[in-house]
Write a sequence for this structure.
């Protein structure tokens, strides 16, 4: 187990703790946003994104490189038809189940083992994507 | 009559933001209150920030599926370099997320362990679409949502707007058909 894996594990612990605290580990809470009954998810995403914004855009002005090596590079992806088509498909699955990849992992943690078949289905979906649409 | 301290008007007063926007506005927009969302969002952001400042990696979620499949599938799509390089740390990250949520359930949570009432067919069909869609789109709520928008990526902004709109439409259709929660 190298240092990087330890950092990712600790970062994951924090991330999962925050997801659970914010209610996102419960599909019901996510669905209550998508049904427009509780706008808290927007608040949570806004605060999480704002905090991450500081790490990506402001800290690199004062710190030249990541402390354990590597480089600071904002996340970037090309906008393609697949980006939007995939987002449509993801949105439909999200609205149906109230789960997204991170929240479903956190859901296991809070004891919601009923999410396990959903995670298996996510792996299957990712496999089908690579098998039939991957280039 | 004895005077109490602090005076009643001060003691019973609302936080400034609640006063400015009106109490009703908040109870309609956020029936469960705003503090779990603010605290949860801050902790999530600190987790992502911690990883980025130390390693330069974007701690995002949905790639986990494809990178883990690379352990089992010989297909070139899954054997790409970026997946092979990141598949190990993504598993450590995922293990952390599961355990972090478990720590919450065992400590701060008022209710301990918990189980959903969403029907199994929705979890499975929805899960399949989530796996397929997030990989086709190269990101999910954390990849496009948190890390992408924080990186000021317009691609991610379009993706987020799209999946939120379609999530809202789908959730309303499901609700309209009488399927709850």
């Amino acid at each position: 187990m190298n240092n990087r894996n330890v950092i990712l594990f600790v970062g994951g612990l924090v991330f999962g703790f925050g997801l659970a605290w914010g209610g996102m580990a419960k599909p019901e809470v996510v669905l209550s946003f998508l049904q427009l009954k509780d706008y808290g998810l927007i608040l949570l995403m806004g605060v999480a994104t704002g905090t991450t914004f500081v790490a990506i855009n402001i800290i690199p002005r004062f710190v030249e490189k990541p402390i354990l090596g590597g480089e600071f590079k904002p996340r970037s992806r090309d906008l393609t038809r697949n980006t939007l088509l995939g987002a449509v498909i993801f949105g439909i699955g999200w609205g149906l189940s109230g789960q997204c990849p991170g929240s479903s992992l956190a859901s296991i943690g809070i004891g919601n083992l009923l999410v396990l078949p959903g995670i298996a289905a996510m792996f299957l979906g990712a496999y089908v994507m690579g098998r039939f649409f991957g280039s | 009559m004895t005077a109490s301290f602090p005076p009643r008007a001060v003691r019973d007063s609302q936080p400034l933001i609640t006063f400015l926007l009106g109490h009703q506005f908040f109870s309609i927009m956020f029936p469960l209150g705003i503090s779990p969302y603010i605290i949860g969002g801050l902790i999530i952001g600190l987790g992502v920030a911690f990883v980025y400042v130390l390693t330069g990696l974007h701690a995002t979620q949905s790639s986990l599926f494809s990178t883990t499949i690379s352990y089992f599938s010989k297909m070139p799509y899954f054997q790409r370099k970026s997946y092979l390089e990141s598949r190990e740390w993504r598993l450590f990250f995922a293990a952390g997320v599961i355990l972090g949520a478990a720590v919450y359930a065992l400590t701060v949570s008022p209710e301990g362990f918990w189980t959903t009432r969403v029907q199994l067919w929705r979890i499975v069909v929805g899960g399949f679409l989530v796996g397929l869609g997030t990989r086709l789109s190269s990101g999910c709520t954390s990849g496009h949502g948190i890390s992408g928008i924080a990186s000021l990526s317009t691609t991610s902004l379009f993706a987020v707007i799209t999946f939120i709109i379609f999530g809202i439409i789908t959730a309303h259709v499901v609700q309209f058909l009488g399927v709850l929660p």
Notes: Chain A touches chain B through 120 residues (CB under 8 Å). The longest helix of chain A spans residues 40-62.
